[in-house]
Amino acid sequence: MESDPIYPMTDATHEVTNQPPPHEGYNAFTSNPWLVDAARRLPVANAAMALGDFVGSREARELAQSANRHEPELRTHDRYGHRIDFVEYHPSYHALMAKAIGSGVHSLAWTAPQSGFTSRAVLFYLWNVLEQGTACPVTMTFAGVQVLRQAPGLARAWEPKVLANAYDPRPLPHTLKSNVTIGMAMTEKQGGSDLRAVQTRADTTSRGEYRLTGHKWFCSAPMSDAFFTLARLPEGVTCFFVPRSLPDGTRNPFFIQRLKDKCGNRSNASSEIEYRDTAAWIVGEPGRGIPTLIEMAHLTRFDIVVGTAGMMRSAFAEALHHATHREAFGKKLAAHPLMGNVLADLALEAQAATLMAFRLAQAFDSPDARERAVQRTLTPVAKYWHCKRLPPMTVEAMEVLGGNGYVEEAPLARLYREAPLNGIWEGSGNVICLDVLRSIAKSREGLDALLQDMRDTGDKRLVRHADSIGAMLGKAEDAEPAARRIVEALALGSQAALMARHASNAAAEAFIASRIGGDGGHAFGTLPPSTPTAEIIASARS
Ligand SMILES: Cc1cc2nc3c(=O)[nH]c(=O)nc-3n(C[C@H](O)[C@H](O)[C@H](O)COP(=O)(O)OP(=O)(O)OC[C@H]3O[C@@H](n4cnc5c(N)ncnc54)[C@H](O)[C@@H]3O)c2cc1C
């Protein structure tokens, strides 16, 4: 064989064998039977096909990699010393944002004639198979619409630009832009969970306008066009809308102090900011800021449920691709029975998460009162559980790739660093579990519906499981320290009921046996030895 004239020494020393082909050039929608099922009968198939094609393309994977490698940089001043508070992103970040916004990943819930939440969830799931730093501003923009509508004047002026599918990153007044994005700035140094401790002050000017003074300790996507934020009025903590550009074209005082040096989520800028005499518009009632913003938080939590399901699919798909092509000890990795157990277990986890995400999305779309109650209870339950399962799942998927998995060129290293974030953001684990208890204390309708879904499967293990949750909740005085146990049991029971209803018999049985019936271990790959793992893996492919 003639050696390559450019790399003669490489060819002279070894041939590359037994490395899998690049995992690219596939359609992330059509190759995912669970997602195709979820999208059935929805008016989103064409958009999902197009986005799925992009997500699986080499181009998209390279953009995702370089947007995370070339991190955003803060420019506080221009060369003449003027304050500009500008974050410079790599072109790959803008290319991804243009694709996400251009595909309606932020807007479809509000613009689709029907089933908007479910249709958009298909796109958001797909986006999270690809990249999560850009998912952050996309989520906040989607969720912001709900709060914006609480200020009709602002909604009239801003909503059409929020919903436009034409990314426009220019730092200009919203009137001059084709599209705007929305952020949220709530967390302060002294506390993020306990927002009653907010110190930022709102003062009223002689013209009846508001000016803010204070800081925010975490503010992601600081180049967004406007932010929902919290500040204190004499009536209490109040929600405000802070645009970065004022109607006269000048910049609203919004001082970006520094960017966070984060564990992951590196394509996305997260900043510390200060308000000094910053113009703001009130949203909702004075002193009711936390309940006003909770509506937005509820939607971002829903998005986390969908996004984490997409990330689990991504981890599983990377692992499956590698194990399908790589050989060890004389056969493909996937053909080894123990690897089959690991892959099947990962598939079950990702499938159950996908079913949960779309069960929830349908509840958001439903006008039915029972479904509204389910949506209220299930959102924090699913948010908690998906966030707890994603990190160990990415670790296990990484291990399937062996050393290749631990190298930055494979997307799993990035996914691994991203995995804990959703568990911290928008309600950390304990806070979420306490929230579930509070929501159940207010109304048991959602809980009762979820327990009924478990009982309706007719599976004795699930009936017993539902009874045990009822018993745990019965002891109200013990509920707080048991909150994680209760929420975990509710999440697993709900996933099991969905698997019983929608998955193949083999997958449903393996899930229920290992997660509810006690016939499984703590690590992945501990399904009952009799499990038909090859069948479960095959049903996870298109
Ligand atoms: C990458 C990233 C991006 C972010 N972006 C934004 C943003 O754009 N805007 C924004 O406003 N914030 C943002 N945040 C901040 C995030 O929302 C907060 O970090 C989060 O709400 C937790 O607040 P905290 O950090 O102050 O922790 P704390 O509130 O101090 O909580 C610490 C721990 O204590 C637990 N805890 C709290 N209360 C209780 C209780 N009663 N019982 C038991 N345990 C309890 C919590 O669950 C948590 O585990 C971001 C954070 C990260 C990591």
What does the model show?
The protein is globular. A hairpin with a 2-residue loop joins strand 10 (327-328) and strand 11. It is of the alpha+beta class. The protein has helices spanning 8-13, 33-39, 45-55, 58-69, 91-102, 108-111, 116-130, 135-148, 152-163, 289-325, 337-365, 369-400, 411-418, 421-424, 429-442, 445-456, 460-474, 483-502, 505-515, 533-538; strands spanning 73-77, 83-88, 182-185, 201-204, 210-220, 226-233, 236-243, 255-259, 270-283, 327-328, 331-332. The site of flavin-adenine dinucleotide (FAD) has 24 residues, from strand 3, strand 5, helix 14 and helix 15.
Number of strands: 11
Number of helices: 20
What fraction of the residues are assigned to beta strands by DSSP? 5-15%
Low confidence ranges: none
Structural classification: alpha+beta
**Percentage of helical residues?**
40-55%
Mass-distribution shape: globular
How would you briefly describe this protein structure?
This protein is an alpha+beta fold.
Question: Any descriptors?
Answer:
alpha+beta; binds flavin-adenine dinucleotide; 7-stranded mixed sheet; 20 helices; 52% helix; globular; 542 residues
Secondary structure elements and pairings:
Elements: H1 8-13, H2 33-39, H3 45-55, H4 58-69, E1 73-77, E2 83-88, H5 91-102, H6 108-111, H7 116-130, H8 135-148, H9 152-163, E3 182-185, E4 201-204, E5 210-220, E6 226-233, E7 236-243, E8 255-259, E9 270-283, H10 289-325, E10 327-328, E11 331-332, H11 337-365, H12 369-400, H13 411-418, H14 421-424, H15 429-442, H16 445-456, H17 460-474, H18 483-502, H19 505-515, H20 533-538
Parallel strand pairs: 3-6
Antiparallel strand pairs: 1-2, 4-5, 5-9, 6-7, 7-9, 8-9, 10-11
The chain binds flavin-adenine dinucleotide.
